[in-house]
Write a structure and sequence with these properties.
The chain is mainly β. The chain has five helices and 17 strands. It has two domains: 165 residues, no CATH class; 94 residues.
């Protein structure tokens, strides 16, 4: 009899162990508890880095977290800031816990060509606290990453390469502040190149179309247009800084002419839509549909920009 009971106990223990080790599906087809959600993220070692190249790597859809499940535990307003009304695919990247303190989750969201990396915090009782955006694609930088180190300091890094070969960069370091439930900036390191003119990635391309050229409001608010691959397309790069630099936007792309004086930027899988209306001396830019992943939330791609007069060619003697 005792032997029989021992066998039953052993079988029950094995069954319980198998159940605990089974990975819960987050497809939205079955109920999910917050502990299931958190443990779905794989444990990682610090320091852990989320780069723009990591965001571009394909991930198996078996790891997909349904939008309905993700927003059950993380406010949908976090995603709306970057993806507007679109519902991106969400994948887990990693999980780490500070002893007797917060749990940090790394996640990436993908919608068309947009990719964003987030750092999400939960408290010791698995209650959601806050989210910090670490990285997003489409930014005009040569190197971009976000990281969490062994001291649980969070770093975001942006780097541009200047035409003279030097690098301009900005590094921000944060810590999670439980008293204010926020990420507190404790260090920022821009180098001396950062405050110079914005690097224009299409500056050296050809300008044969009658509307190509530069349309600057000032050094930090401008639109540049260059020739597309045919007469129906035009390349553009725009950068703006509003509200004393608190609201920044930047976008590079290809617009297509829909009439003699109007070109529209629109890409498949991307809700962002811009209209450019040209006159001989200016261009009017209008954000038709949400471009939130390329700007801060309280400003828009809009305004009239005067065309810069081209210098007359020097006459050869």
């Amino acid at each position: 009899m005792n032997r029989f009971l021992l066998v039953l106990c052993a079988l029950a223990w094995i069954a319980a162990g198998c159940k605990d080790n089974k990975k819960v599906s987050l497809t939205g087809e079955e109920p999910v508890e917050v502990t299931d959600f958190i443990e779905f993220f794989p444990e990682v070692q610090l320091p852990f880095i989320v780069s723009d190249t990591m965001l571009s790597k394909k991930v198996s859809d078996s790891l997909l977290i349904a939008y309905s499940v993700f927003t059950q535990f993380v406010p949908d307003s976090i995603l709306n800031k970057d993806f507007n009304k679109a519902r991106p695919k969400i994948y887990p990247l990693g999980r780490v816990k500070e002893k007797s303190k917060e749990t940090y989750l790394f996640a990436k969201a993908v919608q068309g060509t947009k990719r964003v990396g987030y750092l999400i915090t939960f408290d010791n009782d698995d209650k959601y606290l806050n989210t910090l955006r670490l990285v997003r694609s489409g930014e005009n930088y040569s190197r971009v990453y976000g990281s969490l180190d062994k001291k649980f300091q969070i770093t975001t890094y942006r780097e541009r390469k200047k035409p003279d070969g030097l690098n301009s960069f900005k590094r921000n370091v944060y810590i999670y502040n439980s008293a204010s439930n926020d990420f507190t900036l404790i260090l920022t390191e821009p180098n001396e190149e950062l405050n110079e003119d914005i690097l224009n990635p299409i500056d050296t391309l050809s300008q044969k179309n009658k509307y190509t050229g530069d349309y600057p409001a000032n050094k930090k608010n401008f639109i540049s247009f260059r020739d597309g691959k045919n007469s129906s397309e035009i390349l553009f790069f725009t950068h703006f800084e509003k509200n004393k630099g608190e609201c920044v936007g930047e976008l590079k792309g290809t617009a297509r002419f829909v009439s003699a004086k109007k070109a529209v930027y629109k890409e498949a899988g991307n809700p962002c839509t811009l209209e450019f209306t040209f006159t001989p001396s200016s261009v009017y830019m209008k954000e038709v549909e949400g471009c939130g992943s390329y700007r801060d939330i309280r400003c828009f791609f809009e305004g009239t920009y005067p065309k810069k007069k081209s210098k007359p060619a020097k006459k050869s003697k």
